[in-house]
Write a structure and sequence with these properties.
By secondary structure, this protein is mainly alpha-helical. The protein folds into 2 domains: 67 residues, Orthogonal Bundle (Arc Repressor Mutant, subunit A); 143 residues, GntR ligand-binding domain-like (Four Helix Bundle (Hemerythrin (Met), subunit A), Up-down Bundle). The protein has 9 helices and 3 strands. Strand 2 and strand 3 form a beta hairpin. The longest helix is centred in the last third of the chain and has 27 residues. It is globular.
Length: 224
């Protein structure tokens, strides 16, 4: 149990620093450096790094450790385009299979999102954003589609966090989530797909400006 909790602690610390941008894209991450920094043994660090690589937050480099992915603006735009296209398929399928319990989970998520926005909890907001979409992936009742959606969700997570750290965009994200939720309740596949498309389009519109801020280190680093 102690080993497991230590691995989780290391994983959460590294994940926070990557998603928040504290560890910038292109940075090399090694077991030795992380172990020394966190004052822990290399075993939990190794396990945490491998898990982060599985989530595509790190890239494994043979015999050289890991690196935080550093994509060009065009590559990031491409990621969001593909993710939005796939999520339109997922939400359309979810219309057919989503349960009352899953709709309740989305409703709870929206309420927590409102609280996170009011209390300025940016990292919590990003986790809730990922959770909202994950509920929809599950509701589509397709293992293959879930894996693809989850993969793109993981790859775009730190960029979505950059968007969520922009105060003027938080209410827009909530608005889009609410529209998707309402379309699911109404079982309107066309409206659900359109709401998801609008959600992705808005993110892409602001990505370049947000990425400039992240790269120039203009964001406050004091996430809770």
């Amino acid at each position: 149990m102690k080993k497991k909790s230590l691995k989780t602690k290391v994983y959460k610390a590294l994940r926070h620093d990557i998603v928040s941008g504290k560890i910038k894209g292109g940075t090399r991450v090694t077991e030795v450096a992380v172990a020394e920094s966190l004052k822990v043994s290399r075993t939990p660090v190794r396990e945490a790094l491998q898990k982060l690589a599985q989530e595509r937050l790190l890239i494994s480099i043979p015999k050289s450790g890991f690196m935080v992915e550093d994509l060009s603006d065009d590559d990031i735009q491409d990621l969001f385009t593909i993710r939005t296209d796939i999520e339109q398929i997922a939400v359309s399928k979810a219309i057919q299979y989503i349960t009352a319990e899953e709709l309740k989970a989305l409703d709870d998520n929206l309420e927590k999102t409102k609280t996170a926005i009011k209390t300025d909890k940016d990292l919590v907001l990003t986790e809730l954003d990922a959770q909202f979409h994950s509920i929809i992936y599950t509701a589509a009742r397709s293992r293959s589609l879930f894996r693809v959606c989850k993969n793109f969700s993981d790859m775009t997570l730190k960029y979505r966090h950059g968007l969520n750290r922009t105060a003027s965009l938080r209410s827009r994200m909530l608005k889009h989530h609410l529209e998707i939720y309402q379309a699911l309740i109404a079982k309107n596949a066309e409206s659900a797909a359109q709401a998801m498309a609008d959600h992705g389009k808005e993110a892409k519109t602001h990505l370049k400006v947000v990425m400039k801020k992240i790269r120039s280190d203009n964001f406050d680093r004091d996430d809770d």
